[in-house]
């Protein structure tokens, strides 16, 4: 995450669901660069990680991995009333697949789990957490990570396009649906290569 400027000290977390349905999480007390396999935990030292990740896994049995980040562009987009908008190919995999959750402060209240779960019902592969950051969801760690990379890239593109104050050429729904379907093909699926 640090190599791509996608970390924020210890306030990011990644997790995966193991075959026995337990969770393995980054510890919440170390920078990503300092985390080794021996540091992964079945419960984080970061209550927010436990709340956010457990809510999503409980609601979505199809999800096997989650990446939660506070990257600059995605956090900026989380503050926009319009939310996430797709202007280029990099965002197509998120077409009609971004869920939203309003910021409730630091996620330290177990009651928030119900609202987080309600937000991610369906087929969302990303959760834009208003005024906070985002999560991406995958069938593997590789898929969740690649989705996180492209979500931040698409948010960077969104902010760059909006900053020009020029007329915007928006891709139509038909091409976005087609491109999203193409990303679901084995050769193009996030994390496949």
Which features would summarize this protein structure in a list?
14% strand, 193 residues, 6-stranded mixed sheet, alpha+beta
Outline the structure in words:
- This protein has five helices and six strands, in the order ββαβαβαββαα.
- The model has no long low-confidence stretch (mean pLDDT 87).
- The protein is α+β, with helices and mostly antiparallel strands.
- It has a six-stranded mixed beta sheet with strand order 2-1-3-6-5-4.
Beta-strand portion reads: 5-15%
Overall 3D shape: globular
| Total helical elements | 5
Query: How far apart lie the N and C ends?
Result: 18 Å
Q: What's the count of strands?
A: 6
Radius of gyration, in Å, reads 16 Å
Spatial order of the strands forming the largest sheet: 2-1-3-6-5-4
pLDDT under 50 segments (min length 5)? none
The pLDDT mean sits at 87
Overall helicity: 25-40%
Class by SSE composition: alpha+beta
| Major β-sheet profile | 6 strands, mixed
What is the N-to-C succession of helices and strands? EEHEHEHEEHH
